[in-house]
Amino acid sequence: MFDANAQIIHDLKKQSGPAAANGAVLIRHESYEHPYPHCWRCRNPLIYRAVSSWFVTVTEFRERMVELNQQITWYPEHVKDGQFGKWLQGARDWSISRNRYWGTPIPVWKSDDPSYPRIDVYGSLDELERDFGVRPDNLHRPYIDELTRPNPDDPTGESTMRRIPDVLDVWFDSGSMPYAQVHYPFENRGWFDGVDCADPDQRVDAHYPGDFIVEYIGQTRGWFYTLHVLATALFDRPAFKTCVAHGIVLGSDGQKMSKSLRNYPDVNEVFHRDGSDAMRWFLMASPILRGGNLIVTEQGIRDGVRQVLRPLWNAYSFLALYAPKVGTWRTDSRHVLDRYILAKLAVLREDLTRSMEVCDISGACEQLRQFTEALTNWYVRRSRLRFWEEDGDAIDTLHTVLEVTTRLAAPLLPLITEVIWRAVTGERSVHLTDWPQADAVPADADLVAAMDQVREVCSAASSLRKAKKLRVRLPLPKLTVAVADPERLKPFAELIADELNVKQVELTDDIDTYGRFELTVNARVAGPRLGKDVQAAIKAVKAGDGVVNPDGTLTAGPAVLQPEEYNSRLVAADPESTAALPGGAGLVVLDGAVTPELEAEGWAKDRIRELQELRKSTGLDVSDRISVVIAVPAERQAWAQTHRDLIAGEILATSFEFGDPCGGVDIGDGVRVTIAKAG
C-alpha cells in the first residue's frame, strides 16, 4: 500500500523546484513515527476504508435493552450498571455485514440493475424453494451464490436477482447460538419456549433464557452484547439469567498469555507435579472470577496445594492412620470440639450454598479454605490424643465431617474429593450424590461464634509470643483477655491455657484499661451526604468529641454519621504485650515474665519434642512403649528430676533411667539418650 509513495514525493519535489510557477508545493519532507493499526494475528499493517454495510438499527430498541439488563444477575455485580450497562446506554446501530468469503452468507438477494430495484430477504429454506424452484442442500458460498432468478419487477426480463456478496459478522452467529443450535423455530419449539406442542395449554421447562453463561469480561462488547441485542429484538427478553464475567489470565511477565512467548508455566508439568485440582483451585479462588486479571505463577498454584489440598488430604490421612476401625456417620457426640466442627460444617454448607447460587465462586473457595483451616489446624490438632486413644466419638465425627465436606467441595475440587469420598464411604462417586441438606449436621451458632473467638484469641496471643521470641513450649504465667462478653469465653479458659501454654487465663470486660477505640471519619463516604459538615465532624473526632450511640451511629460536632461513614479501630495501650482481636472485638495481653520454674518446665517440653522425633526416626509405632536411658548435664539434673514423670508419660516410656547411655544420641542441650522398644 506504500507503492506510490516514492512517485508522489518525486512529483512534489519537482513541482517545488525553481521552475515552479506558483511557489513551493512541498513545504517539508521528513520521516516520523505514529500509531498505525496492525492485524492482531499476522501483524501486517492495515488501512481504514469506508464501505457500504448492512445494519441492525439497535438505536430503535436501545432503551428496552437497558431495561431488560436489570433482569440479569451479573457477577461481579458492578458489570450490570457499569461496563455492560454503560455500553448499552451508548449502543449504536450494528454493522452486521463483512466483505469476506468464509462465513454465513447474508440471505439477501438484490437486483443487478439499479433501474429496476428490488431486495428480497429470506428466512427459511421453504421460502428459497418457493422462489427459486430448488431446495439448496448447502447454504455456504459458492453454492448459495448459484441461486439466481429473473427480477419480478423488471418488465424487460433482463435483470437478475443475485445474492449480495457479504457474509454475516461472526458475532451475529454467536448471538444467535441459543436458538440456532436447536434449529429453532423450525424444530424444538416446545423445548425452547416451554410449551408442550401436543397440548399448548400445558407448560414445560423452558430452555430460554439460559440459566447461566460465563466468559471474559471483554465480551460485554462481544458475545454478551450480541446475545442481548438479538434477544431483545426477537423475543423482548434477556438471553440469559445469570452471567459471570471473568478477567484475563496473564503470563508470569504480566502480559497476555502467548504460545509464541511461552510466558507461563508448562501446564503438563504443573498437572504432573501439583495435579489439575491445584490449577483449578488457583483459577477459581483468584480475582479473575470477580472480573480482575490474574498472573499465573507456579508459587500461586502451590499456595493452593499448601492451603487447601494438602490439609484436606492430611485430615483424611489422619483418620485412615489413627482409626483402626471404619468410622460411621454420627452427629450426636457431646464433646465440645466435635460439636464445634459439626456446627462449623453446618455454617459452611449454608455459606457455600449461598455463594454458589449467586455464582460467587471465589467467595466459595475462601469459605472452604477457612473451614479447612479450622478442621486441620484446630479440630484435628486439638483432638490428636483422642484419636491416639481410639475415641469413637472423634473417629465418627471426623468420618462424618469428611463425608459432608467432600460433597460440598466436589464442584471446586472434583478429583481429590472423589478419592477421599470413595475411601471414606466405599461408594462409587461423590459426583453421583446430592448436595447436603440443611439438616445434614446439627447447627449451633452460639458455639461457633464462641469457639471462633477462642481461635482468634489464640492466634493473637501466638503472634505476641512470636514477636517476643518466646518459644511455643516455654510456659508463660498469664494471658489476659479483655472482651465485651467474657462469660462467653469462660467455658473455654482451660482450652485457651493449654493451647497457648500459659498457667492462667484471666477474662475481663475492662477493655479501657488495656486500650482505646480510635475513631476516624470516612470522608469519601460521608462527604456526599454531609457536605461542608464533614469537616466539622472530622475536627470533632480528632478533638475526642465523637460519641458512638447505641444504634451504631456516631455523633461528631453538628453531624450524626452512619456506621459506614466512620471507622473504629481498637488501639493497644502497650503494643509490645497487647494485641487487638479482629474487628475491634477486644484485646489480649500476654505476660512474658519467665520464672526459673517455668524455664525448667519449658526445658522439659523441649526434650519431649526431641525424644518424640527420635521415636519417629527409629521407626517406632505411635503406640509403642519404650525404655529410656538418659544422661543430663549436671546443671540440668534438677530440672530433669522434677519433670521426670512428665517426660516419661508423654513419650510412653515404661522405664526411664538416668545413667550413661552407651552409644546414645545427642538430642540437644548436652542431653544424650538411648531408647528401645519395651519388652
From TrEMBL:
Domain of life: Bacteria
Catalytic activity annotation: tRNA(Ile) + L-isoleucine + ATP = L-isoleucyl-tRNA(Ile) + AMP + diphosphate
Single GO MF descriptor: ATP binding
Presence of the UniProt keyword ATP-binding in the record: yes
InterPro entries on file: aa-tRNA-synth_Ia, Anticodon_Ile_ABEc, Ile-tRNA-ligase_type2, M/V/L/I-tRNA-synth_anticd-bd, Rossmann-like_a/b/a_fold, tRNAsynth_Ia_anticodon-bd
CDD domains: Anticodon_Ia_Ile_ABEc, IleRS_core
Domain (Aminoacyl-tRNA synthetase class Ia): residue spans on this chain: 47-290
Keyword terms of this UniProt record: Aminoacyl-tRNA synthetase, ATP-binding, Cytoplasm, Ligase, Metal-binding, Nucleotide-binding, Protein biosynthesis, Zinc
Methionyl/Valyl/Leucyl/Isoleucyl-tRNA synthetase anticodon-binding domain boundaries: 338-477
Gene3D superfamilies with a match to the protein in the record: HUPs, Isoleucyl-tRNA Synthetase, Domain 1
Annotated protein name in UniProt: tRNA synthetases class I family protein
Organism listed in the record: Mycobacterium kansasii
